[in-house]
Amino acid sequence: MNLPLLLTLLLILCSFSLLTSCQDPTTGITQVEGKVINNYNGQGVTGSSVQVYHASSGGGYVQVGTSYPTDAQGQFSFQFDADSKSGYLVKATAPPGYSTDWAVAPSLTAGRKNTGLVIPMMAPAWVRLQIVDAPPKNRVSMHISGYEGPGDRLNYPRDTTLIRPMVAGYATKIIWVIEDEKGYPTQYSKDVKLAPLDTSTIPITF
To answer: Which of 145, 136, 44, 54 has the alpha carbon at shortest distance from 94?
Structure first.
């Protein structure tokens, strides 16, 4: 093999090795840089904070270290020490309830530079559930769902009001199933689509 060809092959191999080393995950110091934006207008979010999460062996995600504040334009830059080669992502939060959905949280390459990240945050909204035991009084159980979390199971409820969070800007359905004393269920629902920071009242009478 002649020398120019050998040098060319060595250069290609070195370039490939360098490119691979820059992309493959490893452990150690991980650089994270980017911007937190409002999902509705694309503007940077002042007063937000960024948190790294790692996939748990038992399912779900656990926080890695403390959160990192952004600047006035929503920019952030920090490092953390990754002890695993994979399973990292980053989310953001801001008052009074803005947060990043798990489905759009950017993933991180451990042990490498992660730059140009964009973390979208959705605005919160709330539903006010007004539960009224109208005459004649009934002993019932009910389950209410359609907002953030697993929903609420209420056994023999009295007049009460529950306020629950949900993500603004998306059409969803609040569903409640009422079981009478004999255990027969009846399902009801109401379609809702709330503007950012809005609250909708839903009466539930039984």
So the answer is: 44
Each of the 206 residues of the chain gets a pLDDT tens digit; together they read: 554 444 444 444 444 344 444 568 999 999 999 999 999 889 999 999 999 999 998 889 999 999 999 999 999 999 999 999 999 999 999 999 899 999 999 999 999 999 999 999 999 999 999 999 998 888 899 999 999 889 999 999 999 999 999 989 889 999 999 999 899 999 999 999 999 999 999 999 99
Residue 173 CA, chain-centre distance (Å), reads 20
CATH superfamily for 26-121 is Aromatic compound dioxygenase (2.60.130.10)
Superfamily of domain 124-205: Immunoglobulins (2.60.40.10)
Cα torsion through 23, 29, 33, 36, rounded to 10: 110
pTM assigned to the model: 0.69
Residues 6+ positions from 134 with CB-CB distance below 8 Å: 205, 206
Decide if 65 contacts 74 (C-beta within 8 A): no
Domain boundaries, the chain: 26-121, 124-205
Return the H-helix or E-strand segment holding 205.
Answer: strand 199-205
Give the H or E element holding residue 101.
none
